[in-house]
Design goal:
Length: 376
């Protein structure tokens, strides 16, 4: 198995679960697989829409073992990561899990990872294509810190549905288990040694948990408004464009608003306190009668002149809602309402995907009070 910078090469990885009956890898020509981390695992097991339905009735196992998993250890690991990432990790207890962002100095999102703390390490998992560059960045920032960053041979497996009937002790190869706070169905992510994946899946199958492909996962995360970096973001994306990334009201999100300095914090603070992001990630309902579904990166346009107002992200067929997608759309186009277009497909914004609470914007309120005082 080839590696790049110590991280498994996503072009050569092949999950052992591709040997299960009906396992079908993603078709590179399928718009739903464009731009997402899908190489080396099953897109479906013969019944993609049926697998989505099964996920609403009981637990299913989804192989996401193509993702890269890094381990960060050392007595200064918590402070080290806290200084670099958007999540508050310096006081994280074992068992803590949340998302975290690495941003550039202008606040543009460079890496998006899930972080889990155990008694002796932090585990960061993210799309395979990004794992090598995140590892390189972390290693460059070590300097004299007592920290070690290393790749692992762990794979991510997601169980959607109630896991109460599953005996964790009977599952082989488990290194980390986390319950994820998100807007989708009950979700448990398990980091499993890749060499034990087949036995792990067999043990779950014995407990009545059947496999579902990455298409099922993709439909669930789109409905839950969870972006994937390669498909849903561009080099201008900032944290506030994804409303559920901002930690509020007990939801940790990916950005902690009350922590010490980190790269990109100035942009986060400015948007949080003074302004709003010029774009928002929204859920789009696509016209299924279009000759071809658009692919991630397609321009979203509005009005008779076809004015560009955004970019399309992940596109997938949902078993109930038909073709749906994530999109980054200018606020002006959202407030104006009306029909949007993504390639040849008409698109309608799901109103439930618009954020209800984007903070109090204390800085903006202070500016408004100052202006009012001057006028009086």
């Amino acid at each position: 198995m080839a590696t790049i910078g110590g991280v498994t090469d996503s072009q050569t990885y092949r999950s052992p679960l591709l040997d299960l009956p009906g396992a079908t890898p993603a078709n590179p020509d399928d718009p739903a697989a464009a731009g997402i981390d899908a190489a080396g695992v099953a897109w479906h097991y013969g019944d993609p829409l049926g697998e989505q339905r099964a996920a609403t009735r009981g637990p299913v196992i989804i192989d996401r073992s193509q993702r890269g998993v890094l381990r960060v250890t050392g007595e200064e690991a918590a402070e080290f990561l806290n200084n670099l990432l958007s999540q508050k990790l310096d006081d994280a207890e074992p068992g803590f899990s949340a998302e975290a962002l690495d941003m550039d100095s202008q606040g543009h999102v460079v890496h998006h990872a899930f972080v889990t703390r155990t008694a002796d390490a932090f585990y960061l998992d993210l799309p395979a294509a990004q794992a090598g560059s995140l590892r390189g960045y972390l290693e460059r920032m070590i300097f004299w810190s007592k920290v070690t960053v290393e790749p692992t041979e762990l794979g991510v497996v997601t169980v959607l549905g109630d896991t109460a009937s599953i005996d964790d002790a009977a599952l082989p190869g488990v290194a980390v288990t986390r319950t994820v706070d998100w807007a989708g169905p009950a979700r448990t992510d398990v980091l499993v040694e890749r060499g034990d994946l087949a036995d792990f899946a067999a043990a779950l199958s014995g407990a009545g948990v059947q496999p579902a492909g990455l298409m099922t996962w993709t439909a669930a995360r789109v409905a839950a408004m969870e972006p994937e970096h390669g498909a849903d973001l561009d080099d201008k994306s900032i944290a506030h464009e994804v409303a559920n990334w901002i930690g509020r009201h007990g939801h940790p999100g990916a950005v902690h608003l009350h922590k010490g300095c980190y790269r990109g914090q100035e942009t986060v603070s400015r948007v949080e306190n003074i302004g709003r992001s010029p774009r928002l990630m929204v859920l789009l309902q696509l016209d299924g009668s279009a000759p071809e579904l658009p692919v991630p990166g397609t321009d979203i346009t509005a009005g008779p002149g076809g004015r560009r107002v955004g970019r399309l992200g992940t596109v997938v067929h949902h078993f109930e809602d038909g073709p749906v997608a994530l999109g980054l759309v200018k606020r002006s186009a959202l407030s104006a309402g009306g029909q949007l277009q993504a390639g040849e497909a008409a698109a309608v914004v799901d109103p439930d995907s618009l954020p209800v609470d984007e903070g109090e914007h204390a800085g903006r309120a202070a500016i408004d009070r100052l202006r009012e005082a001057r006028r009086s």
